[in-house]
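Sample intake — SusD/RagB family nutrient-binding outer membrane lipoprotein
Collected from: Pedobacter punctiformis
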Amino acid sequence: MIKKTYTIALSLIVLTLGACKKDLLDTNKNPNESETAQSDYLLANAIKSAADNYYSTANTMDASLLFIQYWAKIQYPDQDRYIFTNGSFESGWKSFYTQSLADLNVLIKQGQQQNNPNYTAVGLTLRSWIFSVLTDAYGSIPYKEALDISKITPKYDDQRTVYIGLIADLKTALTTYNPSGNAIGGDPVFGGNINSWRKFANALRFRLALRIADREPDLAKQTITEVLADPAGLISTESESVQFVYASSPNQNPIAKIFETRDDYRVSKTLVDKLIGLNDPRLAFYANKTATATPEIYAGLPNGVTKTSSSRFDLTSKPGNFFTKASAPAVILSYSESLFDRAEAASRGFSTENAAALYQQAITTSFQYYGIDGASIQAYLAQPAVQYNASNFRKSIGEQKWIALFGQGLEAFAEWRRLDYPQLQPAVEGVLDGKIPSRFIYPGGEQSVNKASYTEAVAKQGPDLLTTKLWFDVN
């Protein structure tokens, strides 16, 4: 009898708690809030959050821009000396996964559910770009299971698997786009122009084909052949460059926001010396004149110097206003880069295009972006140090692409590791035994929240160190 009474009482408690839970859910429901996010809002938010993160302090100003020696730090130089903790890259990793990728995954599904394949295709294209940024920086990453809500500890996929998967995802996106189909909204990049999105997908697929070219040359060539034959084409004008254009505060470029209150970044001496040596007029855009006049007019700061003085502030050049103004765009994939990619593919025998002509066109396009006149362009191209060297295309393309990609720290970091040019020297007082970082270390949160997957990835890829080379970084 006691057992029966207990059972009845327990049942009543469970039923009561269930009813309370339902009442609480109903009570806390906002009657004015949509249960399903609108596709245009999802797209706009995903692009904005990704652009902000791509150009964030964690990913660029205190990391890739320093590694690639575009910028240097005049104060608090730990990052410029390669001193990081496992919390240094936490915010960048989390933002990509929990904001941009999460939004895009919902957008892809909504496009399928609402019979608007263009949202699905745009979501796939942007998702592929973000995953590529992550694997470029870290190596093995959660990819296949990353956006599955039933997988709270997603497995890491090795870099080869990720790149090949992304190349396939982009092919799916290209076959999904429908220029004559339903329009899309919330597009701050192309204003809903589906043909421009298709060109971006092709250009990104081309970029990823070159990422794997030293490891999987046959697949790289096949992919590039497919892209060049695709009727959508590639980026063919500056207006088709992929970029997010910022406005005034509070929607300013994240780099501009930092410069409102800080003054501890300078242009690297490596870059300034290179541009001076080549009489490169882009220096006037990449760097500001020194606050106190110097014979050189522009003066770079050596990377990783700890002994600074107050005089060095006014005797070294800040990054140019072109890149630190509020409306400076977040460039994702430029027309100039796409031309350099085509030049490299031709150099490798992956296409029958004219490598030297494309190389010159890529440099010309970079100059024109800054409004530099034709006479200056021709004088620059005529220099023996600039002319295309077919016997060492890595040097010609690597050095000129590095100059053209100024400001795009993450992309330049990937290309420098892949092409091995320019041949940079480690930071003056770097702490990596004469080496430059080859990757980002995983955020500490992964070691505690997703430890088993993290441990398995590190065991396969190599130690979770800045100096561990990634799969695509062959030489």
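Post-analysis note: The CA atoms of residues 279 and 361 lie 19 Å apart.
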